[in-house]
């Protein structure tokens, strides 16, 4: 059974960098041809794809967030991470990590973590 678990601070101050980690169990993040995703959902809005890191470490970013977003991984810990710089209240959302199944579907999700941006 594949499981994903987000971790990170629930409160970030404006202009700071948000850092989240997704711990993966039950599957190696290096297994071809899966990809690992960060998605967020602001209050009363839909899901927003933020970026992807593939099984071989290639990254893709939402163009609207690309200048502020970085996704990396630690294969020794089987985890991948999100950094979002210069946060504003508009970045408040529930942040999810998920697995993309190689065919465009997201088959496993973390439970999500609420992030509040406030001084």
End-to-end separation in angstroms reads 39 Å
N to C succession of SSEs: EEEEEEEEEEE
Give the helix tally: 0
Q: Helix/strand-derived class?
A: mainly beta
What's the alpha carbon Rg, rounded to whole Å?
A: 13 Å
Beta-strand proportion = over 45%
Total count of strands: 11
Q: Approximately how much helix is present in the residues?
A: under 10%
For the biggest sheet, the summary is:
7 strands, mixed
Give unreliable regions as ranges: none
Integer average pLDDT: 97
Shape category: globular
Characterise this structure.
There is one protein chain. With 119 residues, the protein is mainly β. Helix content is 0%, strand content 51%. The protein contains no helices and 11 strands. Strands 2, 4, 5, 6, 9, 10 and 11 form a 7-stranded mixed sheet that branches. A 4-stranded antiparallel sheet has the order 1-3-8-7, with no helix packed on it. The N and C termini lie far apart (39 Å). The model has no long low-confidence stretch (mean pLDDT 97).
